[in-house]
Design a protein that fits this description.
single chain; seven-stranded mixed beta sheet; 9 helices; GFO_IDH_MocA-like_dom; NAD; Gfo/Idh/MocA_Oxidoreductases; NAD(P)-bd_dom_sf
Length: 323
Amino acid sequence: MGLIGLGSMGRHHARVIREVEGMELVAVADPVGDRHGVAGGLEVLADVEALIGAGIDAAMVAVPTYLHEEVALALAGAGVHALVEKPIAATAESGERVAAAFAAAGLLGAVGYVERCNPALLEMRARIEGGELGEVFQITTSRQGPFPSRIADVGVVKDLATHDVDLTAWIAQSRYAMVAGQIAHRTGREHEDMVVVTGRLENEIIVSHTVNWLSPRKVRETVATGEKGAFIANTLTGDLTFVANGDVRSEWERSSHFRGVSEGDSIRYALARREPLRVEQENFRDALWGRPAQIVSMEEGVHTLHVVEAILESAAAGRTIAL
């Protein structure tokens, strides 16, 4: 494995790659050096060409978003498999070029949406697939907290909100059909720092996302509501809770009018809490070995960018955008 980008995410990837069985970190690159001291005994190379020259099989791309296309295309051209940190690129058009290059070269390309590896969301997805929620009606997410000084090249929509779009489509197993967004600029920066989104998926599940960098309270919550109750995932703690409906749907259908839902039993599941970044790298390794693995495909990464660009278009135009 090679790693390009030794910043706030790259340093964690370096540690995890070294810990994962079957992976060996043999080369690192960052044109601004190794400010976190993660290279160990490795030489800090200057660019992606030098990284490729080290003879790597695959690479982790953790450079700023605006450099994703340039670096990923160089890797694809050299026949190097890659896991690219989210989002896949700065724009959907750019992401399409990256995805097409990896597909044309017959290479494995994946996108680093680490929230999919959160134990609470993995358990929620499995239980929904097993029918424990019945029909899913709605998925809502809240991702709020203080401003991260490390982010300078994009706003909260293309940084944080991409997580929510990706995980919602994955949990629901459906793409987005339409979105409407409202954004705000409260810190004087070029890019937005608050967004509220509503939308509908192709399978008719309605969704909403509240995302910002301006809350003193850090919140990471995903709620899936369906005919049998609601799953509530706290991805900060890795906890998943199920709250059952006190009234089952068959009773509603026999009634002459809707009687509402009462709160039933609650269950907080005991989950094995493995580090999501490690799970992500293990999935990438397994996919390289040809084993079944839950990676985020580049095509999925492009769809997420189409959705977030539609959110920004909606906010600018003041109307709902169909995808």
